[in-house]
Amino acid sequence: PHTGRVLAMSGGYTYGGTEFNRVTQAKRQPGSAFKPFVYLTALENGFTPTTIVEDGPVEMEQGENLPIWKPQNYEGEYLGPATLRVGLEKSRNTMTVRMTQVFGIEKVIEVGKRFGIYEEVPRNFSMVLGAAETSLLRLTNAYGMIANGGQKIVPAIIERIDDRNGNTV
Asked: How far from 21 is each of 11, 25, 130, 139, 149, CA to CA, in Å?
């Protein structure tokens, strides 16, 4: 995480079958793997690990002629008031949405861009639960930046190329 050098990467089954690299080229929804960046946003905006957030049903207007959005926790249960730490530890969807309502989705989008997870992202609340698409390389690099104390790193996939005699080209 300190250098950005990629030790190993498995982006597919067989290069002969397809040259598509699922690590660098595939876009997928990170799901709950994005939540730590929402919690990081909370910490940057005055929350602490002991801040109490309600883990309970939440509803949001989505706009004219759209249904009410009612995100739920994975198992459909709620803890009631819980600390920020418990919310992250247990990956609570409703707490994540409720926190974002306090400090605003724009700040979450900014953190996602700052850590290189997204370039452009739709401005909707489902993105705080990991609904916006990114590549595995971008998400992994963002986690590396956290491990690196928040310092920016750039993934380095190729360090050097050697010829068949071991000479660096």
From this structure: 5, 6, 21, 15, 29
Query: What does the alpha-carbon distance between residue 1 and residue 140 come to, in Å, rounded to a whole number?
Result: 10
Beta-bridge mates of residue 52: 83
Please name which of 43, 65, 69 lies closest in space to residue 126, comparing C-alpha atoms.
69
Q: Identify whether the C-beta of residue 154 lies closer than 8 Å to the C-beta of residue 162.
A: no
**Coil, strand or helix: which one is 166?**
coil
pTM for the full predicted model? 0.88
Bridge partner list, 81 = 54
Structure tokens, 88: 């992250």
User: What is the amino acid identity at position 33?
Assistant: A
Residues 27-44 pLDDT 10s:
999 999 999 999 999 999
Q: What percent of the chain has pLDDT over 70?
A: 100
Q: In 3-state terms, what secondary structure has residue 86?
A: helix
d(CA 127, CA 61): 15
Report which DSSP code applies to 32: G
Instruction: Dump pLDDT digits (tens) for 41-99.
Output: 999 999 999 999 999 999 998 888 889 999 999 999 999 999 999 999 999 999 999 99
